[in-house]
TrEMBL record:
UniProt cross-references to InterPro entries, sorted A to Z: Anti-sigma-K/W_factor, RskA_C
One of the record's GO molecular function terms: sigma factor antagonist activity
PANTHER family in the cross-refs: ANTI-SIGMA-K FACTOR RSKA
One Gene Ontology term from the biological process aspect of the record: regulation of translation
Protein name: Anti-sigma K factor RskA C-terminal domain-containing protein
GO cellular component, one term: plasma membrane
Organism listed in the record: uncultured Leptolyngbya sp
One Pfam family recorded for the sequence: RskA_C
Residue ranges of domain Anti-sigma K factor RskA C-terminal in the record: 109-232
Domain of life according to the entry: Bacteria
Amino acid sequence: MNIQDWDLQDRDELWGLAGEYVLGVLTTEEAAEIERLMATNEELRAAVDYWEDRLLGMTAMIEPVAPSSELWSQIERRLPAPGVAPARAVPLRRPPLWETLNFWRFTTAIGAAASIILGATAFSRLVNQAPTYAVVLQSPNDKSPGWIVQGDRTGKLQLIPLAKPVVAPDRALQLWTKPLQAKKPTSLGLVPSDRSVQIPAARLPGLAAGQLFEITLEPASGSPLDRPTGKILFIGRIAAVQ
């Protein structure tokens, strides 16, 4: 799609373009146009901030790497000489995700996750519908991100793995949810560890901000009770996006 064909009045298209901008898959001209539009379009700016915050969490999956001496030399060559002011002052703003060193450290990991988020359209649009709710489920031990849970306007969930935990043949991953006022959790079924899965709204006891989601390690056929019996692997409370 050409820049002149963009319809930023279409909310789904706006959120899709924001996601493509953060992932760095737009052309230089398109990215520059997004940056220009963000100065006056508050929702576009909010969408960019949302995807930067969500995707930047994936850097926690990668071990820190010390910059090489060659890289430091390149940085020093680009810095102005002592006492020489930059040609012009540039307003400070958080750099796009693809300009950070951590982004390039996990290009492979984020590419896999992005392909799931963007869907089968191969980055043509980030999402068919901007999520109404979202949460990154984290390990209760080291806070490492494991899954993204997104809920759309219809109440349907999409569960996206950020890592591939090794599960023994006699064990399975089971997804649970518990609304704030509920007395017990509801099982949303077993989930695969290596691919995205959608859960219809009919299987949920509703969907609201603050609702708890967790993935536990259970027997291969699932928990024998109406509650989790195994170790909690990932947990988090969903939040409203808009």
